[in-house]
Amino acid sequence: MLFIQNEMDHIFDRPAKPDDTRNTIIESSHPLITWDVIKSDLKNINQWDWLGISWNSNITWDIIRDDICSQKPIGKWEWSYISCNPNITWEIIKGDICSQKPIGKWDWHSISSHPNITWEIIKGDICSQKPIGKWIWYEISLNPNISWDIVQENPQYNWVYGALSWNVNITWDIITSNPNKDWLFYMVCRNPNVTLEIVEANPDKLGDLHHLAYNQREYDRHLFRNNYIRNEMDMDEILL
To answer: Is 171 inside any structural domain?
Structure first.
């Protein structure tokens, strides 16, 4: 797996460490890793990180189900990560739960924020005669399919503004146009719509270095590092 490690080192802008869990997870979820690669390395099967494998985009539901149901399964599957695997759909989840022998230990935190789970799916299940979901409103509020229009049109639900504060569909204009809402500005710092210009114009609200360090605007992260991180303050310390 060393060839992948070398390729992934740059992600954290620092040398990879053997005991760095984050690097291990990313390595195991790398697009070069397939089920065939994993099966061809059975002698080192315990060295693979099954969190990363469980949400690897090359690992389909058929692969997971067939391994779990086999006589000699090799996977140490992690259901919280399977539940956010990009191949998982509502049809798969519902089909397993409603089957005669369900195998899934589905994680509803992961499902509630999954990009494949739309508001129509969530509301349809909630309003059905026999809902199957154990929906988590914090995670629903983070779901990238949730728009401000959906929130406004459905005020009867328990929207969590701490989560909405960094939802990718919530812009700075929406936040400033609705000052009566319970926005958490330290979480707004994580919102990918928050640019360096917005941060600099609002230091009283958006000055949380810890949460700014997690902002997903990669091209602004480099500016942030240069402008806000001093020599005595290493990025690793902020991310702890």
So the answer is: yes
* Strands (E) located in 48-122: none
Q: How far apart are CA 45 and CA 165, in angstroms?
A: 40
> How far is residue 236's CA from residue 157's CA, in Å, rounded to a whole number?
38
CB 27, CB 9: distance < 8 Å? no
Structure tokens belonging to residue 156: 């009867």
Contact call for residues 119 and 137 (beta carbons, < 8 A): no
For the stretch 146-170, pLDDT in tens is 999 999 999 999 999 999 999 999 9
Give the distance, in angstroms, between the CA of residue 180 and the centroid of all CA atoms in the same chain: 28
Is the CB of residue 38 less than 8 Å from the CB of residue 53? yes
Total domains, the chain: 1
Greater confidence (105 vs 225) lies with 105
Quick check: 237 pLDDT over 50? no
